[in-house]
Design goal:
The complex is a heterodimer. Chain A is an alpha+beta fold. Chain A contains 5 helices and 5 strands. Chain B is 34% helix and 24% strand. The chains are: A alpha+beta, B alpha+beta. Bound molecules: flavin-adenine dinucleotide (FAD) and FE2/S2 (inorganic) cluster (2 copies).
Amino acid sequence: MNVSMHVNGERREYDVEPRTLLVHYLRDVVGLTGTNIGCDTSSCGACTVLVGGESVKSCTMLAVQADGCQITTIEGLADGDQMHPMQEAFREHHGLQCGYCTPGMVMAAVSLLVEHPDPTETEVREGLEGNLCRCTGYHNIVKAVLAAAQTPLASAV
Amino acid sequence: MIPAAFDYRRAQSVDEAVGLLTEHGEDAKLLAGGHSLLPLMKLRLAAPSVLVDIGRLSDLSYVRANGDTVAIGALTRHRDLEISSVLHEHVPLLAHVAGQVGDPQVRHRGTIGGSLAHGDPASDLPAACLALGATFTMVGPQGEREIEAADFFQGFLETALGPDEVLTEIRVPKADGAGWSFQKFNRRAQDWAIVGVAAVAGSRPGIGLVNMGSVPLRATAVEAALAAGASASEAAAHAADGLDPPEDLNASPEYRRHLVRVLVRRALEEAGAA
Ligand SMILES: Cc1cc2nc3c(=O)[nH]c(=O)nc-3n(C[C@H](O)[C@H](O)[C@H](O)COP(=O)(O)OP(=O)(O)OC[C@H]3O[C@@H](n4cnc5c(N)ncnc54)[C@H](O)[C@@H]3O)c2cc1C
Ligand code: FES
Ligand code: FES
């Protein structure tokens, strides 16, 4: 069936099976492979994208459920060569090692700042509880998000 | 993992949803937020041949104070409950419990109606609705009917909902100023409760239990002990009476019986229920 959505501001329209998951629509149909699949069972958050500005696990949503929605993926954050403040903060504070969790972590963090513009450390840790990282021990991710919160536009998409 | 193929139908109204369910019978399933159903479909533990999407029935997403009760639309997402000022004023337990479900991503999609209709004994909101003495409205081909939360949960993942019925509204008595507590015991962030306890004090006291049997349960033995004048710790000693909790990777039945006595005592003390 026909499913159209705005992905990173661009209208995309494709004919897909109703059972197509949003993450497969984004990766395999639209061709944006920045969104990773980790667990594929709604647990790890690697597949997190924004739907209408809110974090969602795209492995647990059908593309048809996002029909007509505004989707933001990791590719949609930077402005040309200018990284998004959240990406900048992850780089600055060493918030990644292997990088596998990073696209989802960054998207979850952007959504977190929309809901908690000036979060406490506890709010950051709890707000990222849907995202697993096997490398960093989370400490530098938390530092990065706290730092990003102090820069303007860190929750902008 | 990709679900088995199905026909997708998007309902524009409750009546249309009921019509589609009636037309397709047992092969059809409602889809709300999809955060219980889609994981099951991906694992092929569920394979409905028709999905009736009610996720866009935005007129079923609301929280309204209405006389002595608060009325909640079945399509209200966990996140909207968590931040509802009406709930914070009149039923803070429910806002708090919604904020403990899963993680932010889950709360952005999952709905209270889906959580109740799924009927999972490990879910948080059913126990809260039991403690609060909620009433549910369902609409089917014969029209509307109401049911008490205490009569709704009938077996493992089985509720009083017929295959052609839609849960539309949850009504909860206002509990302004009443003490309350939610004890969710788990080992990892984001997890379901190994055991959970929702308690509300005040004029309509109630205690709901998470993961202590094949259905979400009311702690009737504790409620009876409290009514007879028992202290929090005396009443909590009855928390596992007559219950047959599940065994899984996280806990043995014996451990769950121990946990529930401890958590009920903490909940009663925090709620000031005894
Ligand atoms: C990673 C993860 C962690 C989670 N952690 C928790 C947790 O800690 N605690 C907890 O309580 N829950 C947890 N959940 C479950 C979550 O709360 C689900 O959102 C909720 O149980 C189902 O709501 P839904 O709207 O997504 O329903 P769906 O998945 O769309 O539907 C669930 C079932 O209910 C039926 N249904 C849905 N709406 C209606 C209706 N209005 N009328 C009749 N039938 C209906 C559907 O047909 C289906 O059978 C978790 C889920 C995930 C994926
Ligand atoms: S891949 Fe979606 S949550 Fe892990
Ligand atoms: S950086 Fe490797 S999983 Fe997070």
